[in-house]
Amino acid sequence: MELPPGQKALAFFPRFGTHFGKPPPPLPPHPTIAIRGPGSPHVELPLAELRALPRIDLTCDFHCVAGWSARGLRWEGVPFRSLYEAVIEPKLGPHRTVTHVIFGGRDGFESVL
């Protein structure tokens, strides 16, 4: 399969974040995912509980808006939909809807979905 127009294939997948030349920040002894929003309860989800949710495996290409592609990558983990339905949605209460999600890393990098 051909690359999309304007894309250049990379032989590796670069680490995302704000400090590309530095190693990733260290993990705390008991890492958690913090889930919070305006008017919603604050939830700390230990990674052990995240690992208990349904997981998927898939192989696909990643095409970055910066003009590079990494091909045939193997991804595994918990789909956001599973996390949302099992952890977030039950805490929202009736008639509440999430319209935006901001993912933030320990290195300060954020991405909005």
Give a short overview.
The protein is α+β, with helices and mostly antiparallel strands. Helix content is 16%, strand content 31%. The two termini are 28 Å apart.
Describe the 3D structure:
- By secondary structure, this protein is an alpha+beta fold.
- The chain has a three-stranded mixed beta sheet, with no helix packed on it.
- β4 and β5 form a beta hairpin.
- The radius of gyration is 17 Å and the shape is globular.
- The model has no long low-confidence stretch (mean pLDDT 85).
Query: Residue ranges: pLDDT <50 for 5 or more in a row?
Result: none
Question: Can you list the strand order of the major beta sheet?
Answer: 1-5-4
Helix-residue proportion? 10-25%
How many helices does DSSP assign? Answer: 2
Architecture blueprint of SSEs:
Layout: E1 8-10, E2 32-35, E3 43-46, H1 47-51, E4 56-63, E5 68-77, H2 80-92, E6 102-104, E7 110-112
Parallel strand pairs: 1-5
Antiparallel strand pairs: 2-3, 4-5, 6-7
Features:
three-stranded mixed beta sheet, 16% helix, alpha+beta
